[in-house]
């Protein structure tokens, strides 16, 4: 049987014999609230008559599809209907589930959340417009489920590996990094620096770290940082760096060839460089 994914588990709700959701017990009080028709509003509905679970789901989908108007409406409707906490709970989840990593909007959404819940009453006028700001920010951000896809993929690979080992066969899928690649002389040789047991046993020290292991990808260090880096290597009182080594340390890592040029052959002297590698 297929495992329930995170979103399915979040949206799952218990249904009574009449087809209505069972109270999840998160309401703070039992105060009677009326909908737009002047009728008593069930806890699971909004004032417009929409089911709050369905509106929350629509809200999340509108963020993924960058529909600003729908996102703003969902925010307003949920908050004015007394479901502010549900709105903010799901909005905070968007930061890690539906926005691209490094989205600056995540910090802004977190700030709006604190304003709406710590400075103001979440259901006040200020709380409502702050929720709309957050919804618009989320809808305008770069949408991506990359973290969820990564988690799902790595988990499936792990399940396949476990099944393969149990059945005595080779796995049909593997992780991006294999055990032999993370060995001396392997693809990720440079990771085995002085901070690892393997690197220390190989005699790798700060010299290896500064020249090889601390390099950054293109475009490289900012100009001022490069100046400080060079000066630091030139006046190091504990170790000497050749001009060739300094140039290598300052050379940006090629994103098309991130690892190969820093691989050290098991028989190679750490001080020897092969820029053609």
What report would you give on this structure?
By secondary structure, the protein is mainly alpha-helical. It has three domains: 33-140, Zinc Finger, Delta Prime, domain 3 (Up-down Bundle); 146-172; 180-262, no CATH class. Helices cover 48% and strands 0% of the residues. The chain is built from eleven helices and no strands. The protein has helices at residues 6-11, 52-64, 68-80, 84-97, 105-119, 125-140, 146-167, 197-202, 206-213, 223-234, 243-250. Helix 3 runs antiparallel to helix 6 (125-140) and helix 4 (84-97) runs antiparallel to helix 5 (105-119). Mean pLDDT is 85; it is low at 12-20.
Uncertain runs are 12-20
Number of domains: 3
CATH class of the largest domain: Mainly Alpha
Helical content class: 40-55%
CATH topology of the largest domain: Zinc Finger, Delta Prime, domain 3
Question: What spatial form do the alpha-carbon principal axes imply?
Answer: elongated
End-to-end gap = 49 Å
Strand proportion: under 5%
**Element order: H for helix, E for strand:** HHHHHHHHHHH
GO molecular function, one term: DNA binding
Region (Disordered): 1-39
Biased composition (Basic and acidic residues): 1-15
Biased composition (Acidic residues): 23-33
Topology:
Blueprint: H1 6-11, H2 52-64, H3 68-80, H4 84-97, H5 105-119, H6 125-140, H7 146-167, H8 197-202, H9 206-213, H10 223-234, H11 243-250
Helix pairs in contact: 2-3, 2-6, 3-4, 3-6, 4-5, 4-6, 5-6
């Amino acid at each position: 049987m297929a495992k329930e994914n995170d979103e399915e588990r979040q949206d799952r709700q218990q249904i009574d014999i009449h087809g209505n959701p069972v109270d999840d017990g998160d309401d703070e009080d039992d105060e009677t609230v009326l909908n737009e028709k002047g009728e008593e509003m069930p806890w699971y509905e909004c004032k417009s008559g929409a089911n709050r679970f369905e509106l929350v789901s629509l809200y999340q989908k509108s963020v993924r599809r960058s529909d600003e108007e729908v996102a703003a409406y969902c925010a307003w409707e949920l908050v004015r209907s007394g479901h502010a906490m549900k709105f903010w709970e799901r909005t905070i989840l968007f930061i890690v589930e539906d926005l691209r990593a490094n989205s600056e909007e995540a910090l802004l959404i977190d700030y709006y959340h604190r304003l709406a819940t710590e400075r103001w009453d979440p259901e006040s006028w200020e709380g409502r417009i702050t929720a709309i700001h957050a919804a618009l920010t989320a809808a305008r951000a770069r949408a991506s489920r990359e973290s969820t896809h990564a988690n799902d993929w790595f988990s499936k690979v792990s399940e396949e590996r476990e099944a393969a080992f149990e059945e005595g066969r080779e796995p049909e899928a593997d992780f991006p990094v294999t055990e032999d690649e993370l060995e001396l002389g392997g693809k990720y040789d440079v990771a085995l620096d002085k901070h690892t047991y393997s690197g220390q046993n190989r005699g790798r020290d700060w010299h290896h770290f500064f020249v090889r292991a601390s390099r950054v990808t293109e475009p490289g260090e900012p100009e001022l940082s490069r100046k400080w880096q060079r000066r630091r290597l030139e006046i190091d009182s504990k170790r000497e760096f050749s001009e060739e080594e300094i140039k290598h340390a300052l050379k940006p890592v090629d994103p098309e060839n991130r690892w190969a040029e820093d691989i050290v052959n098991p028989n190679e002297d750490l001080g020897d460089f092969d820029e053609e590698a």
